[in-house]
């Protein structure tokens, strides 16, 4: 059976055939200029990782890498059914929503003495135990508890079979980002974020790529971030970054798609429009990265070292920070374990 196209090639394949989502060259140029002006800031380096992950353990601790694995394995589907009914987790006096509820819940469990970053424990924990770890401060629970339990215990068992830690598991791929993604996808079924588009098998591998990028972020903070082929990674196709790309006019939705999303239509995983949103997001960020590197070469005479993962590390908090300004652009909603 033919293997799926990798994420970058998938993005290009989809963008060239898309009917409801379009990459806009003027917007691509505008975002490249925006990023060019930030090229010397920490926002566009792996050190931006700690800023984006304030609740992670200190990068030097042994638990940091297993924490990253636990969080990324359950990093999907945080959007609320009703905007007024958000799952909330308060940690050290700060109340978090969305993805940060997961980070806060895992770090809270560690402080409570629950060995949530130990694969021996989380590979066989019960649904009730995970429900306690992920408990909300209000009446709205974190969505998809059964699915989170299934993927976490499955992932834990894989780590147990490969040395008992995420570090020992991922070391089998050497220091190569592409091989790491391939290893994760091969060994852990819940990371196989694939679909079919116009008869072609394609892939996004959002969580597998973000797991590798987070691993890189931790290692970089330790001064050990010499991972090759980081440029192979694409942006992490989710529901937040596409909204930012539409806001920045690097992406455009058709009127029909806009209307469907504004009407609150749920898109199923693998729906043509959902695949187009994710694929065109990947391709627009690839074009932004290429244009940014051209600007750095033309204006500074230097080789650009900014990769798509770092651009995503910038765009995701940007979208979160400007969510009120972006409120008129609908987020697409898909309940699945992939993002």
Automatic annotation (TrEMBL):
<keyword id="KW-0378">Hydrolase</keyword>
<dbReference type="GO" id="GO:0016787">
    <property type="term" value="F:hydrolase activity"/>
</dbReference>
<comment type="similarity">
    <text>Belongs to the QNG1 protein family.</text>
</comment>
<dbReference type="InterPro" id="IPR019438">
    <property type="entry name" value="Q_salvage"/>
</dbReference>
<comment type="function">
    <text>Catalyzes the hydrolysis of queuosine 5'-phosphate, releasing the nucleobase queuine (q). Is required for salvage of queuine from exogenous queuosine (Q) that is imported and then converted to queuosine 5'-phosphate intracellularly.</text>
</comment>
<protein>
    <recommendedName>
        <fullName>Queuosine 5'-phosphate N-glycosylase/hydrolase</fullName>
        <ecNumber>3.2.2.-</ecNumber>
    </recommendedName>
</protein>
<dbReference type="GO" id="GO:0006400">
    <property type="term" value="P:tRNA modification"/>
</dbReference>
<dbReference type="Pfam" id="PF10343">
    <property type="entry name" value="Q_salvage"/>
</dbReference>
């Amino acid at each position: 059976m033919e293997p799926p196209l990798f994420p970058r090639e998938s993005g290009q394949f989809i963008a060239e055939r898309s009917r409801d989502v379009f990459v806009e060259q003027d917007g691509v140029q505008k975002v490249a200029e925006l990023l060019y002006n930030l090229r010397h800031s920490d926002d566009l380096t792996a050190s931006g990782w700690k800023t984006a992950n304030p609740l992670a353990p200190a990068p030097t601790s042994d638990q940091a890498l297993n924490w990253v694995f636990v969080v990324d394995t359950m990093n999907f589907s945080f959007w609320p059914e009703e905007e007024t009914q958000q799952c909330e987790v308060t940690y050290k006096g700060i109340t978090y929503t969305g993805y940060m509820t997961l980070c806060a819940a895992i770090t809270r469990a560690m402080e409570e003495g629950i060995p949530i970053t130990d694969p021996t424990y989380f590979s066989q924990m019960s649904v009730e135990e995970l429900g306690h770890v992920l408990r909300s401060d209000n009446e709205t629970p974190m969505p998809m508890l059964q699915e989170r339990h299934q993927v976490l215990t499955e992932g834990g068992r894989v780590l147990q079979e490969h040395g008992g830690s995420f570090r020992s598991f991922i070391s089998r791929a050497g220091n190569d980002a592409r091989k790491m993604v391939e290893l994760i996808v091969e060994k852990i079924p819940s990371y196989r974020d694939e679909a079919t588009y116009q008869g072609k098998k394609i892939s996004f591998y959002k969580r597998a790529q973000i797991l590798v990028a987070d691993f890189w972020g931790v290692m970089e903070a330790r001064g050990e971030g010499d991972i090759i082929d980081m440029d192979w990674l694409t942006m992490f196709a989710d529901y937040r970054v596409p909204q930012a790309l539409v806001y920045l006019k690097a992406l455009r939705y058709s009127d029909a798609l806009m209307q469907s999303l504004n009407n609150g239509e749920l898109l199923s995983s693998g729906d043509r429009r959902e695949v187009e949103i994710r694929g065109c997001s990947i391709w627009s960020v690839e074009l932004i990265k290429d244009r940014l590197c051209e600007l750095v070469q033309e204006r500074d005479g230097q080789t650009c070292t900014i990769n798509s993962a770092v651009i995503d590390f910038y765009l995701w908090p940007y979208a979160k920070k400007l969510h009120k300004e972006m409120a008129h652009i609908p987020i697409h909603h898909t309940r699945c374990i992939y993002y």
